[in-house]
Amino acid sequence: MSDNKNPFNERTLELQEVGPDTFLSVDLWRPKGNRGVFGGQVIGQAMSAAGKTIESPYRCNSFHCYFLAAGSNDEMIAYEVRRIRQGKSFCSRLVIAKQSGRVIFMATVSFQRPEPSVLRHQYAMPLVPPPDSLLTREEHERRRRERAGKVVDTDKITEYNTLPVETRHIPLPRDQRGLPFNAIWLRAKGDMSDLGPLHHQSMLAYASDFGFIGTSLRPFQLDQPDTNYKLSMLVSLDHTIWFHESFRADDWLLYVVESPRAASGRGLVVGRIYNQEGVLVASTAQEGVVRGTSLGTKDEALEFTSEITRAQGSKPRL
Fold this sequence. Notes:
This protein has 318 residues and is mainly β. The chain contains four helices and 13 strands. Strands 1, 2, 3, 4, 5, 6, 7, 8, 9, 10, 11, 12 and 13 form a 13-stranded antiparallel β-sheet that branches.
């Protein structure tokens, strides 16, 4: 039985209807040190806005967006939805997000009427420790800072505890640290039993942006004292999520992320999201600005072999 029975905070994705197919956010979060509001919240709210123009039984099958400018938390965001197409199997929406009349974000959203399929396959879920056996995000942050001999950032810990999503970091073996790979368990805080499929999709879309583009920086080990690199900019450019199966956002989901390439001042990350039964319920992709300088004498590209995309019968083990 799930222990996630506290009331769910709907304010994160809540929207106020202010006109025909036009909605206004009521809450925005700007993470400590960020240039603007959390991109995942804009993603989730935009998906929620598009969903308000859709009738059941359609569900989101894909969401593609661009971050055009940093959003401010001093002014709520207005989401304008345009009904592009209404078909029998699929329908499409365009979402434009504005602040002070300026476009800061745009998305195309596709919805599909559920249908059965006999043509199915998926990558197997990696074998990882269960979420209940892992440190909470607060515990992980405290231990990480203490091992590095740094003072624990209590403001950051407080910020973690106020988020509507909880995570469990999956530690990599020592010989795999520095690989462009990351895996976490995540779930929405609180019981979402009374909420419909679109709300679960919007909540997962929100959570799918946590630490995503940062995976492209792992090979450079910027948190190590002997790193040869210094980061100067890390900003998301776009984000995509595809939904494959139904799921509950308030149940633990495994988020497996890898970065196949960083070059030309940009990094690319791709992700897979599994439920605890091993079903691949969603896939993600994102590109971001990744800029830095070399502190050493060498300036050459690092190269890796992807281990989690091997086409083998056995499950990859972390």
